[in-house]
Amino acid sequence: MLAGRLGKALLLTAAVAVSTAGAASAAEKIKVGALRLASHAPSFIAFERGYFADQGLDVEFEYFQAAQPMAVAIASGDVDFGITAISGGLINLAEKGAVKVIGGALSEEEGIPGQKILVSKKAYEEGVTAPSFLKGHSFGITQTGSSFHYMAHKIAEKEGIPASEIPLKPLQKVGAVIGALKSGQIDAWAIVPNIAETLVQSGEVMEIGQVADYIPGYQVTTVFTSAKIASENKDLVKRFLAAFSKGAADFNAALVDKSAGEDEAEAVLQLIHKYVSADQPFEKVAPAIRSGAMRINGDAALNLESVKDQLAWFQSEKMVSDTITIDMLVDPSFVETY
């Protein structure tokens, strides 16, 4: 009798072990596009804390240095999900039925430090001490049709400066823009606060304004995937967004709302540092990440009105077709929109 029970127990243990091993091996492999910026922290947190694994996802990161190449990678199927700014390239791919925006990520929010408008020390000394003095001065962007292009024109529009009178300098990569600004090869740029603060601290760059004063409520980055995944694998999208949202909640609680306590803030900063400026000492990087933390939308909610404004601007600049609609660009069925 005892031997029989023992045998059954051993068989049950073996079955559980096999089942667990099978579940682990069945984790769905996906690639997630990212930039090594603090604004991508929710993905890093979700990975490090097992939130993706909890959703049955085996994540591999694919790193990019600009938004448009990530959109191309999503469309080609080389990457499954991306988190980055809306670009002309992304919109054109959406019109072709290749990609869909499925949620929101980084956003400008009143009362929280947001993206900074910067100028080189040389330009500042020449009198560019406020955005109103940008006329005739160069502005760095990664590519034509990037979010930097959009910001430059929105700043010019509000200041009453013809967009053509702020020369744009496409430099392809964020690192190249940073180098050009520090050396005075370009006059101005706008970027997330943790990078901006590090540059200002170098003494070679000056802050002259905030993007939020020119684009209130700006949905800076969005979550997107291929149109095929959005339509044919909705469960995968839901699982990805659930894990990403959990990472965003940790980030916001630790560094934006500061409701999680100092120990948690320190833990989150240590985690982010593994992916952001890992070649620099933690003591140097952490203060800028902490003070420059921007809101990541809870539950990946999407500011649809901001996305509509961005689409309208790209159309006004003739970078995308007038025939593309917001429904071609966005699938609003996965998250709350406002």
Automatic annotation (TrEMBL):
Report the domain of life of the source organism: Bacteria
Annotated family: Belongs to the bacterial solute-binding protein SsuA/TauA family.
Q: Where is the signal peptide?
A: 1-26
Give the primary localization class: periplasm
Protein keywords: Signal
Query: Listed GO cellular component terms?
Result: periplasmic space
Domain SsuA/THI5-like spans what residues? 39-250
What Gene3D superfamilies does the annotation carry?
Periplasmic binding protein-like II
Q: Which GO terms describe its biological process?
A: alkanesulfonate transmembrane transport
What is the organism of origin for this protein?
Stappia albiluteola
Per the UniProt record, the lineage of the source organism begins with: Bacteria, Pseudomonadati, Pseudomonadota, Alphaproteobacteria, Hyphomicrobiales
* The protein's name: ABC transporter substrate-binding protein
One Pfam assignment: NMT1
Protein localization: Periplasm
